[in-house]
Amino acid sequence: VSLEIVEPGALASVQDPFGRPGWRHLGVPVGGAADSWNARLANRLVGNPDDAALLEITLGGAVTATYAAAWMALTGGLRAMAGGIELPANEAWRLRPGATVRIEAGGGARGYLAVGGGVVVEHVLGSASTDLRTGFGGLEGRALRAGDRLTVGATTGRPARWIGSHPTGPIRIVPGPHPEQIAALEATWTVAVEADRTGVRLDGPRLGGGEVPSMGLPLGAIQVPPDGRPIVMLADRPVTGGYRVPACVIGADIWRIAQLRTGDEVRFASVRVEEARRANASTDEELAALEPLETAEDDELGWAGSHE
Amino acid sequence: VIRPFGESALLVETGSSEHAQALAARLRTDLVAGLVAGVPGLESLLVELDPSADVDGVRSALERLLSEPLLLAADGRLRILPVVYDGPDLAGVATLTGLAKAEVVARHAATELHVLFDGFAPGFAYLGELPVELRVPRLDTPRTRTPAGSVAIAGAMSGIYPAPLPGGWRVIGRTPATLFDPHRDPPAYLLPGDRVRFEPIDTGAWDGRAGPPDDW
Question: What is the ipTM score, two decimals?
């Protein structure tokens, strides 16, 4: 099976859910899927191991085609169409050879398109993820382009449908190393133009920011530079940062930050560390809320088989 | 001082990069249960914990380690990097420091620097410390793209951009040497603890020194 990129949309790249966390002492960012939770879910829906490589598609406008029957699934904030019909989200579909899938804008910033068997690329420093800034990993260290063809591995598991649920309400935060102003973060913020895989800048009340000696930055750290506009740091954040960090977004809510688009509103609420750890565990458990799909190998679903 | 950094990390303030590196090295051999990674910074070590780790347990294990004397690493290898000193900010740095351009170059090249830590980008080494007379503030408006190999200074630090990256440091020269290659082991040429000296070269010598240094 291979997968062709007919159109990449705003930005599409090969990522895996976990990136390369073991090379930060040499300045190498963790990277990997910005919304790791949805990337893992997409893999599970097509029967892949959690760490398989897949496509991260930004804001929509992408089209892919397959060159053999394949199970695919889309998770996250975008919508999938085939032959003018919307394909179900959070559920695997079986596509017949040559079928094209169009990924369109939806309720969030990023979609994860997984294919049974996973995208096969060379692992660099232990990961298939594309480091777009330095230019290595993934497919030739770059964003995907029209005409790229990706190899797909052999399917290992069974396709499924997700039947879990997501928390609603404010994004939960816990104290960082400079927690004096954490209460000031509990406000409504608007996502600025600067929202990418590195981080999401927020406009709202001005906080007291400032420089500190460069220190390692965990995922979700909320940095406040001297201009007082907070930035929530995501997968491609630099290994170290030199601004004050009053708080961090909890692990369970990182995926919600990664799905924000310019102009979206977001609210923070402070929680206790114990509550954050419980929320992280239950978010992990939600990944397992799967129902297996019937798999008659030669029976491609009618709607998925139609061409555009 | 050990500060909480989110629900699954701690920031250990070590006061110096040498102590941060030494503690990171210590944690690689004396494993602490529940601790998954350490990221050294300028005066601290970020430690990340397993989701199910006993935070208080890790904290007291770290406090115990910190109460013992840390073995600081001996001086690292000497790395000599060729530099063509023709950077776009060389004249500006001369103005800011009140030194002639040739004097800026001479002092930069005469100072043996140390890799304090790697951060910012793959293979980017924070080199310190510059003599007081070479310390200048960052650019008011950072460049959206600083070419690979740019040799730059800001405050007490010097650094070399391993790839084309945005940056606010003042670029005084360029090196033909490759500093990061994910297919080499180790992928970074400059490692924490290394000593670094810059060697002024003419543009004519560029091609002969291009690529990964022989002593990678």
Answer: 0.93
